[in-house]
Write a structure and sequence with these properties.
five-stranded antiparallel beta sheet; alpha+beta; 4 helices
């Protein structure tokens, strides 16, 4: 019997329309808003300056794609990284403020900041790339 070979494609993309600090500023300006409650992926995509769809159906789809392309990391998320976690049986995404803090539409129902340990102890992170964003 032959071996199964899995080939990972390399992915390249340009810079995000908004840099990390501008994206974090955009998010912090929206703290307290409940308008983004179920749209954590859309919120992050727009924070980094992409007005059009990300090409992923939802955060679970994005996480699976990132995992398939070996783009997920474990450990402390650096400032500006996307933090992927599970809450209430849903995969969600927030943005790292650094020092164990995140911002985004959190499970509380509003855009807020929180200690990541209070949101989830089981998470991975990725660079803030939206390879299909426009």
């Amino acid at each position: 019997m032959g071996e199964i070979v899995v080939e990972r494609q390399s992915v390249s993309w340009g810079a995000n329309p908004r840099d990390t600090e501008a994206a974090l500023g955009w998010q912090l300006e929206r703290v307290g808003s409940a308008a983004w409650q179920d749209w954590s992926l859309k919120f992050q995509r727009m924070a980094f300056g992409f007005a059009q769809d990300s090409g992923w159906h939802d955060p679970a789809d994005a996480l699976q794609w990132l995992d398939h392309h070996d783009l997920l990391q474990e450990g402390r998320a650096p400032r500006g990284a996307l933090v992927w976690y599970q809450a209430a049986d849903l995969i969600r995404v927030a943005c790292s403020l650094g020092s164990g803090q995140v911002v985004g539409p959190l499970p509380c129902g509003q855009v807020s900041t929180s200690d990541l340990a209070e949101v989830s102890t089981d998470y991975v992170w990725s660079e803030p790339h939206f390879p299909f964003g426009h």
